[in-house]
């Protein structure tokens, strides 16, 4: 009987205190969320002010009758939304030291990059898959060396930004390689068919086209490495300097990043040429003419 009375009293006390607990928890959540959002909105004041130069570009496009006004505004709004969302996502991931979030973010970037590169080479059969596999292989191999050599700590704050830069460069290079290779073979289809008729393998018949596609796609990456620091200061280096880091520390990081960018881009672009061949040729070493019909 006594225990029942005691239990009832405790329950009554808990019920009495329950609204107070809810109010306290609600107050804490409300305070934290609003302070974070207010800080974020205040920080967006300067980016919004910087859109003045975009408005200038829109006006110039209108005066010159370029017809790019709508696309400029759309791209700017989309950039604001995408970067805002990814900012919250990275804020969440950075506060959790979890390998799973790193891998998930990396695979998401590779998927988007593969789709984008495949869109550029839209006439290449299974282009999105070829691009995705090529980018995944090139960047993951490079990331493997990055981790093994302990260049950066394996934490979201270091790995995700570096992976993003590598995936972005590999995406551009792979898309250009695939598109250029297909277009060159289409332009010189008679030469390729003649070589095949004389007994050449697909690799031998398209060797010059492959070389040309790789040189064209990789040249901007190599030229950027040649002129880095002389013409422009890359994003990673600029970010560190603006964040208060020493210029000497900034250049050390940038050298590392440039090395990995070249490695990932080269592996991805070369692999994409090998993966394109099954779609370009039949098992009898003949060109798939339907692939080269459209311009």
Automatic annotation (TrEMBL):
Family, according to the entry, reads as follows: Belongs to the UPF0014 family.
Nuclease among keywords? no
Biological process annotations from GO: response to aluminum ion
Provide GO CC annotations from the record: plasma membrane
Name-wise, this protein is: Protein ALUMINUM SENSITIVE
Location relative to the cell: Membrane
Lineage top rank: taxon: Eukaryota
Q: Main location per UniProt?
A: membrane
Q: Which organism is it from?
A: Trema orientale
């Amino acid at each position: 009987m006594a225990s029942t009375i005691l239990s009832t009293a405790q329950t009554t006390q808990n019920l009495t205190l329950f609204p107070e607990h809810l109010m306290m928890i609600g107050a804490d959540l409300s305070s934290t969320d609003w302070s974070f959002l207010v800080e974020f909105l205040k920080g967006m004041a300067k980016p919004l002010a910087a859109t003045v130069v975009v408005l200038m570009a829109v006006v110039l496009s209108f005066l010159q009758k370029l017809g790019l006004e709508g696309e400029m505004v759309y791209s700017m709004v989309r950039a604001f939304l995408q970067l805002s969302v990814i900012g919250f996502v990275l804020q969440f991931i950075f506060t959790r030291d979890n390998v799973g979030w790193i891998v998930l973010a990396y695979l998401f970037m590779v998927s988007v990059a593969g789709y984008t590169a495949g869109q550029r080479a839209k006439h290449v059969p299974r282009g999105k898959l070829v691009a995705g596999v090529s980018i995944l292989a090139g960047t993951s191999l490079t990331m493997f060396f990055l981790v093994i050599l302990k260049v950066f700590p394996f934490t979201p704050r270091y790995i995700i930004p570096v992976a993003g830069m590598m995936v972005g460069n590999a995406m551009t290079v792979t898309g250009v390689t695939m598109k250029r290779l297909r277009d060159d073979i289409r332009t010189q289809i008679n030469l390729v068919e003649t070589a095949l008729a004389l007994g050449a393998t697909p690799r031998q018949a398209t060797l010059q086209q492959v070389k040309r596609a790789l040189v064209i796609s990789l040249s901007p990456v190599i030229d950027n490495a040649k002129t880095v620091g002389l013409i422009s200061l890359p994003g990673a280096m600029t970010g560190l300097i603006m964040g208060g880091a020493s210029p000497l520390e900034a250049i050390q990081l940038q050298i590392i990043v440039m090395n990995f960018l070249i490695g990932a881009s080269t592996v991805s672009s070369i692999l994409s040429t090998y993966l394109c061949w099954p779609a370009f040729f039949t098992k009898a070493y003949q060109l798939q003419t339907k692939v080269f019909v459209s311009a």
